[in-house]
Amino acid sequence: MTTKERALIIYDRLSERFPAPESDLTWTTAWELMVATVLAAQCTDARVNKVTPVLFGRWPGPAEMATADVAEVEEVVRSTGFYRNKAKNLVAAGRLIMDQHGGDVPRTMAELVKVPGVARKTANIVLSNAYGIHEGVAVDTHVKRLSFRMGLTTSTNVSVIEKDLMKLFPRETWGDVNHRLVLFGRAVCNARSPRCAECELADICPKEGVTS
């Protein structure tokens, strides 16, 4: 079995488990998704979802965030961790989007990664989920772990992993590849004690790096 054949079987089986995957983050606009994803760095989605109603209640969009007091934003996002840097980036992001994009979150990778606090992972999530544009595969900790364990990559570098996954899966599936791997990583293939005995991928998974 080739790596590509294994990848497509993995996708088919995870599609059965998660037929309509979506982010656990609560959002209604591209701006809200971008902000929530920035806040989710080193933080759980559940915690972010408790913070964003207050955040968006006070600063609904980039126009309001652009004129926000950083210290006030810090207080609202404090519980998400790294709050000083996150607050600084959010205010700066609001200003850049207002100044350079007329208040609209950019629709290209090249423009999005210039937004403070936004790297490729966040940009991929915004593009695929908010705009239906597939520029790449968002590689977070779950996708990184599972891709290596399942033999879809031999690298631990997120940039290399993303390129490897883009070669294995059809472009139109890239957004769902992220969702399904993240959901499966939380439900079954977790970091410390993967539940291999009850995994529907056990027969084709090389279990790279799994010692128990």
Name the poorly predicted regions: none
CATH architecture of the largest domain: Orthogonal Bundle
Q: Label the overall shape.
A: elongated
Global mean pLDDT: 97
Distance between the termini: 24 Å
Order of helices and strands: HHHHHHHHHHH
Share in helix: 55-70%
What is the number of independent domains?
A: 2
Radius of gyration: 18 Å
Per the CATH scheme, the topology name of the largest domain is Endonuclease Iii, domain 2
The CATH top-level class label of the largest domain? Mainly Alpha
Q: What would you call the structural class?
A: mainly alpha
CATH evolutionary superfamily of the largest domain: Helix-hairpin-Helix base-excision DNA repair enzymes (C-terminal)
Give me the number of helical elements. Answer: 11
The largest pleated sheet is described as: none
Please tally the β strands and state the result: 0
Molecular structure report:
The structure is a single chain. By secondary structure, the protein is mainly α. The two termini are 24 Å apart. It has helices at residues 3-17, 30-39, 45-58, 62-66, 70-77, 83-101, 109-112, 120-130, 141-149, 158-168, 174-187. The protein folds into two domains: 3-21 and 137-198, Orthogonal Bundle (Endonuclease Iii, domain 2), CATH 1.10.1670; 30-104, Hypothetical protein, domain 2 (Endonuclease III, domain 1), CATH 1.10.340.30. The model has no long low-confidence stretch (mean pLDDT 97).
